[in-house]
Design a protein that fits this description.
This protein is of the alpha+beta class. It contains 5 helices and 4 strands.
Length: about 180
């Protein structure tokens, strides 16, 4: 009888620990103003029409070029890019950030890419360091920063390009 009682107490204790863990480590959503969000929301059918129209226009442009490999060689356009939640949260957590701005860029591989920065309430790009450098340090010795000023400001890029990471079931994906 004593052993079964001990097992019961152990199970109850385990359940309590799991409940406490679930309570303290539950995911809380980022607060959202639905009225402001609605300004940017479009139906998925409309979004799919946009991606199809872009792909069609890209194909028509390629057909107009004498050098058919020019677009791929000089402007390798992605279908999409994937950025993880932490990258986006880093932008939104920047002091004064109320939005993000996405620029088109052209990287060293001649791939069109998305360059993303946080923006202020006034619509200005917020400049500065996005991710703290947690590199090597010696306790008691302050870290000297010897970087040029232009390297103290950061933006996001290096999204995972489709077809390396695609959702082929999405209505936005193109064949």
């Amino acid at each position: 009888m004593k052993r079964s009682q001990s097992v019961l107490y152990l199970v109850i204790l385990l359940l309590l620990v799991l409940l406490v863990y679930a309570w303290f480590f539950r995911r809380t959503p980022i607060p959202v103003n639905n009225e402001l969000a609605k300004e940017h929301v479009i139906p998925m059918t409309e979004a799919a029409a946009y991606t199809r129209a872009f792909a069609d226009a890209k194909n028509r442009l390629a057909a107009q070029l004498k050098d058919t490999s020019y677009l791929t060689r000089e402007f390798n356009l992605p279908v999409c890019e994937l950025f993880n939640k932490d990258a986006i949260a880093t932008l939104l957590n920047k002091e004064g950030a109320t939005g993000i701005r996405i620029y088109l860029g052209l990287n060293e591989k001649r791939e069109v890419c998305f360059v993303i920065v946080p923006t202020s309430q006034e619509g200005k790009d917020i400049r500065g360091k996005l991710v703290a450098d947690n590199g090597f340090s010696i306790p008691g010795i302050s870290k000297a920063v010897a970087l040029p000023p232009d390297q103290l400001e950061e933006a996001l890029e290096r999204g995972i390009r489709c077809p390396h990471m695609c959702d082929f079931d999405s209505p936005l994906s193109l064949p």
